[in-house]
Amino acid sequence: MNKVSFTMSFVILYTFWILLSGYFDFVHLSLGVVSALLVSYTSHHLLTGDVRAEDVSIEMKRIIRFFLYLPWLFYQITLANIDVAYRVLHPKMPIDPRILRFKTDLKTDIGLTTLANSITLTPGTVTIDIKDGEFFVHAISEESAESLLSGEMQMRVKNIEGD
Amino acid sequence: MFLQVALVIVFSSIIALYRAISGPTIYDRVLAVNVIGTKTVLVLVLVEFIYERPEFLDIALVYAIINFIGTIAFLKYIEKGGLT
Amino acid sequence: MDLVNVISYSLFAIGSFFLVVAAIGIVRLPDFYTRMHAAGKSDTLGQSLILLGLIIHEGASFISIKIFFIILFIFIANPTATHAVAKAAFLSELAPWKKDGGKER
Questions:
Q1: Where are the domains of chain B?
Q2: What residue segments make up the domains of chain A, in order of their start?
């Protein structure tokens, strides 16, 4: 059994339990220990994956860089929603949808997931499928397709992934 | 104010219900049902504020998770014709 | 009307606007893939804004923490669900709508 992922799952689950229950008496706290232990024993590999002790610091750095990426993402989400509202409420609906594909050299799961979800949340593009590092993206108009292919977002996500 | 917001949300899910009923493809229906489900989460949270009953927040949290799992399970069912 | 109420009520207003836009978009847009744009973006932001307004209205408490978890979950799950539906439709070879009426893939 992987001790690192077990401990991490237990800490995360127990914190979550305390925050959700909101009670600090003996019964609730001890029940929390029992159920967090049980769940992290049966399915600790699902939450954190099969991490080793020496990888923890790299993963932590990735998570910190992910939080630094969030402000730019929120800015893009705001733009995306104004864009969608404009296209939906415009009487003629200025859309010209197309499907495009591009290769990416991201490797880690966190990088691919972040890129896919960011593409979905940013203006005019939705991820459809990822196959062997190739993204299939549906773009609602020509400009949004071009702005995705310019690769700014890929660069930022690659920055999260680090080395 | 919470009641008015809840009414607007219910109104918008009635609009989305049109897409769930009329289709035309099964994926449109799944998408519309997913949207209605996430709006239901919002209404549940608002109910907590309207009637001051904190239990509804736990229901909302669980409903959000069930809605997501339900969508994924249903998609898997149409894709593969079974859940295994 | 103090500042907290002004902020949270305006967040409610903007959020409700985006939710209605998402619903109209789902009905109005011509095919499944374009409807995905309305469902995946406007819905996520609209919900998060309304829940954020509730957090600001409530202040710091366990209720706010729970609402924050709901926001976090919606932000991860909503694009993922949209992505899953899109992938299923794409694999079943549903043809996307084109501006000139063609059905090219």
A1: 2-80
A2: 3-51, 55-161
Residue A100 host element (H or E): strand A98-103
What are the residues facing A99 on neighbouring strands?
Answer: A138
Total residue count of chain C as it appears in this document: 105
B-chain residue closest to C29, CA distance: B19
State how far residue A127 is from chain C, nearest Cα, in angstroms: 6
Among chain A residues, CA nearest to C84: A128
pLDDT in tens, B15-51: 888 888 887 888 888 888 888 888 898 899 888 888 8
- Residues whose CB is less than 8 angstroms from the CB of residue B50 and which lie 6 or more positions away in sequence, other chains included: B2, B3, B6
Q: Give contacts of B8 with chain C, Cβ < 8 Å.
A: 16, 19-20
Best interface-test mutation with C: which of B14, B27, B67 has the largest number of C CBs within 10 A?
B27
Do the beta carbons of residue A81 and residue C42 sit within 8 Å? yes
